[in-house]
Specification:
heterodimer, A: 406 residues, alpha/beta, Rossmann fold, seven-stranded mixed β-sheet, 14 helices, B: 288 residues, mainly alpha, ABC transporter involved in vitamin B12 uptake, BtuC, two-stranded antiparallel sheet, disordered C terminus
């Protein structure tokens, strides 16, 4: 018998490791770990706490209904501080230390784009609320494990175009913050507007952190546009609108709602803000799923669920994931669960609005989860198409005017 | 032609504000001999303090004075707590420490004032038109405030005993010491002065834009560029360089586009340094 030292060591090592491996497999069978990675502090702080609380609430709801596919959720919460650096550190900790199998609720494109290589390497899910078109396609979504519960910036651009058509604008111009999200908005608008046979008279992409945007404004205003469509954020929009008002021009503005919010109106004053259009993607208001989410949000945050569109998205993330796990059956791996996500969310099944309802209906056949944030039908890129609202600033109040479906 | 003049005017205003920040950097460099990366955050702090002072007192003037005082005091505190202890070490130790100080100040501002943007509550005014060129009243006031600050700093440097001693230390520290100039008093005056100048720069940027904890840090790079361009350690140079970079950046935009205008000002900086390594007004480094 040729028993060398090496083979002895190998077999000893195998014997020592076997129970450890088995133990881990058993632990994974009992729980499914989720990392709630949200902007609790920083620019996303108005939304982050609510997003995180809804992940916890939805996970509790799933656990109370007996878990998904025989597994209970365990949630690990982290703060992105709304900066990519902090988000990457937190994601590393969630993946390497907590061994989460899904990272849910990243907000802002820069953060999702920074975190996605990590989740891809670990072969786990990333469910985000960001808009950058780059998140749809490889390399970011090369593995098809990323799902976006927010409208893409491209879709925002299409909603802007619908608005401009409806309001009768003829000579739109665009101004975009130089990043994936800002340019995504205005490029999406340009594509949609040109498809309608229109022409965009000027396009400007500007750099962040400037003390003045007057040169940029001058270039745009020289083309005499009747409306300026932006892909911008709160800080730069404040400076631009103040400088615009001081030029004495009377152009109209169409601005995404994350920039055109009550803080903007407060910063520039009622007179300058009068007539601004704010466009936002909206939750699936009036749906039974939204009522369920709304009740949970009121309980956790003491505020109406309408006040946080992103919290409705994170609620849906957990429910969708749970339904896919239920459909995939006990101990399904990530790939098997991933195959089921579109199956439980997209049409052609029995419409369901909660996890418990879906779990019951799955025994009879296919289901279609109609979410709280949107009807939640994922396309080939893992993107959804919510509805949009158009609001107008009137005497300092942002008033919702009508809905846009694209 | 009119658009160019308006762009140039705009560049002058931006340049004056950046020039003030550069002045604060260059003052510290001239005497304490290190690039102070905390300058930007002292600026932000000045702006936040001015906001708080203005909302408590109801007038911007008192708020502004309070903001300047807070910036000057914090700047001095940084010297006593950190930079004094490092003064015998190589400059890179102070530089790295100043980056740390910057982080601390910014983090404290984030906790105390929050990350939401704040604005000075000033009414928006329509511009005056002179020969069809638009003049903005707010910009005019900002420029006047910046110019007044510059005049005050130069008067302090050139017409007061403490200023004369400061310049003596900047020229030759050992000779100054032999002549009986006490370094400690010079340092106190220097840090108060550079903090006050940074505070004013921060308040002016805050009035022009929005106040956030990150605003000063974001402006640090252009301010450093202006300080180097002007000949580091040279106060007039810092301001002139700030204005030149501001004008170049703005006037060039019709040709190079907006994405590259910031890069362009650094290209100008590189070109000038290739021809004049000591900067616009700098003396030869070897003589220091």
């Amino acid at each position: 018998m040729n028993l060398t030292r090496r083979t002895t060591l190998q077999s000893l090592a195998a014997a020592a490791l076997a129970p450890a491996l088995g133990g881990q497999a058993f632990a994974q069978g009992a729980t499914f770990r989720i990392g709630a990675l949200n902007p609790v502090t920083g620019a996303g702080s108005p939304y982050g706490s609510g997003m995180q609380k809804m992940i916890l609430a939805a996970a509790e709801m799933v656990n109370a209904a007996g878990g998904a596919g025989g597994r209970k959720f365990e949630v690990f919460a982290e703060d992105t501080q709304t900066t990519p650096q902090a988000a990457v550190l937190a994601a590393k900790k969630l993946i390497e230390v907590n061994k989460v199998q899904a990272v849910v609720g990243t907000w802002s494109s820069g953060i999702s784009l920074a975190v996605i290589p990590l989740t891809n390497d670990a072969n786990i899910f990333l469910m985000n609320t960001s808009g950058a078109p780059a998140l749809s396609v490889p390399p970011a979504n090369a593995k098809g494990l990323s799902y976006r519960f927010q409208a893409t910036n491209d879709r925002f651009g299409r909603a802007f175009a619908e608005l401009c058509e409806k309001e009768g604008f003829k000579r739109p111009a665009t101004m975009a913050f130089n990043n994936a999200s800002g340019i995504g908005n205005t490029e999406g608008f340009k594509k949609a507007w040109e498809k309608k046979g229109g022409k965009v008279v000027a396009n400007v992409v500007y750099e962040p952190n400037q003390t003045s945007y007057r040169a940029e404004l001058q270039k745009v205003l020289a083309e005499k546009p009747d409306v300026i469509v932006t892909g911008s954020y709160l800080g730069d929009t404040t400076i631009i609108l103040r400088e615009w008002f001081q030029t004495g021009e009377t152009t109209k503005w169409v601005i995404p709602a994350w920039a055109a919010n009550p803080q903007l109106v407060k910063a520039i004053g009622n007179e300058a803000a009068e007539g601004l259009f704010a466009v936002d993607s909206i939750s699936n208001e009036g749906s039974p799923a939204f009522s369920a989410y709304d009740a949970a949000y009121q309980k956790a945050m003491n505020q109406p669920g309408l006040s946080n569109v992103y919290a409705a998205m994170t609620w849906d993330m957990v429910v969708t994931l749970a339904l896919a796990m239920e459909a995939a059956g006990p101990n399904a791996d990530i790939a098997a669960i991933n195959k089921k996500i579109r199956e439980v969310a997209n049409p052609d099944g029995a419409k369901v609005s909660t996890f418990a309802e879906g779990k019951e209906a799955l025994k009879k056949g296919k289901i279609n989860y109609e979410g709280a944030s949107s009807v939640l039908d994922f396309d080939e890129f893992g993107d959804v198409t919510p509805d949009f609202s158009v609001s107008r600033v009137e005497k300092g109040e942002i008033k919702r005017k009508y809905l846009v479906k694209i | 032609m009119i658009p160019f003049i308006e762009l140039a005017l705009n560049g002058i205003v931006s340049g004056l504000v950046i020039g003030l920040a550069a002045l604060s950097i260059t003052l510290v460099f001239g005497v304490a001999r290190f690039p102070n990366a905390a300058t930007g955050d002292v600026m932000s702090l000045g702006a936040f303090a001015a906001l708080a002072g203005a909302s408590a007192s109801g007038t911007l003037l008192i708020g502004g004075v309070f903001g300047i005082a807070v910036a000057a005091f914090v700047s001095l505190a940084c010297y006593f707590l950190v930079f004094q202890k490092l003064s015998s070490r190589p400059p890179v130790a102070s530089l790295l420490a100043s980056i740390g100080v910057a982080f601390v100040i910014r983090a404290v501002m984030g906790v105390v004032f929050g990350h939401q943007q704040k604005v000075f509550d000033l009414p928006l005014a329509r511009p005056w038109r002179v020969l069809d060129i638009r003049f903005h009243p707010t910009d005019l006031k900002i420029s006047l405030a910046a110019l007044a600050t510059l005049v005050a700093v130069f008067l302090i440097l050139h017409a007061t005993p403490i200023g004369r001693r400061m310049r003596a230390v900047a020229d030759d520290p050992s000779l100054a010491r032999v002549s009986g100039i006490s370094p400690r008093r010079i340092m106190v005056a220097l840090w108060l002065l550079s903090g006050a100048v940074a505070g004013i720069a921060g308040i002016l940027v805050g009035i022009k834009t929005v106040v956030t904890p990150e605003m000063g840090w974001d402006l640090l790079l252009p301010a450093f560029a202006a300080a180097i361009f002007g000949g580091i350690g040279h106060p007039v140079g810092a301001v002139v360089a700030g204005v030149i970079l501001g004008i170049v950046q703005e006037v060039a935009t019709p040709f190079v586009g907006f994405t590259y205008k910031i890069a362009l000002s650094f290209a100008v900086l590189l070109a000038v340094l290739l021809i004049r390594p000591k900067g616009l007004f700098g003396t030869v480094a070897g003589a220091r």
